[in-house]
Amino acid sequence: MPGERRGPVGWESENPYYEGRKHPEPTVCERCGLVYRDGHWQRADSVPPEAHRSVCPACRREMDRYPGGYLFLRGEYWPRHWDEILNLIRNQEAQAQLSRPLHRILWVEPHDGEMEIATTTAHLARRLGKAIHSAHKGELTIHQPKGEPLVRVVWQRD
Ligand SMILES: [Zn+2]
């Protein structure tokens, strides 16, 4: 779509995964318990009884297995340092969730000698890739065509 900066026409309003989508307030995610309030999904100690019910974008992506980002680990290095890398990834996820609970890892699965890590958001995939790059060197490449919401981050070290 020429002229569109953030994806196809209507992407923001019709895409159920779009995080900025408006919900009535308060709305509770019936799957994970996050509450939509003050314009974003957040953790809540209690849910107001009058809260509307819906499913948050992160849970929708989990149910549909529809990631917002991918990180691929390639080369000979990662299998030998897997425990360390997995720890780093889980720590980064936990830190990201403190401020943005919609940042989640959807799955971690090996395929044909590479490790595929799928995330709910492009932001988290980039963050994980950068953290691995800074701790373990190697080469980091980020693929995200203009106007494309999905990011593919590739980290490689032989
Ligand atoms: Zn949820």
Give the topology.
Elements: H1 11-14, E1 27-29, E2 35-37, E3 40-42, E4 52-54, H2 57-64, E5 69-74, H3 77-80, H4 82-99, E6 105-111, E7 114-119, H5 122-136, E8 139-143, E9 151-156
Parallel strand pairs: 1-4, 5-9
Antiparallel strand pairs: 1-2, 2-3, 5-7, 6-7, 8-9
Helix pairs in contact: 4-5
The structure holds zinc ion.
The site of zinc ion has 8 residues, from α2.
Description:
The chain is of the alpha+beta class. It has two domains: 11-60, no CATH class; 67-156. 31% of the residues lie in helices and 27% in strands. The protein contains five helices and nine strands; from the N terminus they run αββββαβααββαββ. The strands form two sheets. The chain has a five-stranded mixed β-sheet, covered by helices on one side. A four-stranded mixed β-sheet has the order 3-2-1-4, with no helix packed on it. Strand 8 and strand 9 (151-156) form a beta hairpin. Helix 4 crosses helix 5 (122-136). Bound molecules: zinc ion.
Strands ordered across the widest β-sheet? 6-7-5-9-8
- Amino- and carboxy-terminal Cα gap: 39 Å
The protein's oligomeric status is single chain
Count of spatially separate domains: 2
Percent of residues in beta strands:
25-35%
Low-confidence stretches: 1-13
Spatial extent as radius of gyration: 17 Å
User: For the residues shown, what is the average pLDDT?
Assistant: 89
Tell me which ligands are bound. Answer: zinc ion
Q: Based on helices, strands and strand pairing, what is the structural class?
A: alpha+beta
Q: What is the number of E strands?
A: 9
Listing every helix as H and every strand as E from the N terminus to the C terminus, the arrangement reads HEEEEHEHHEEHEE
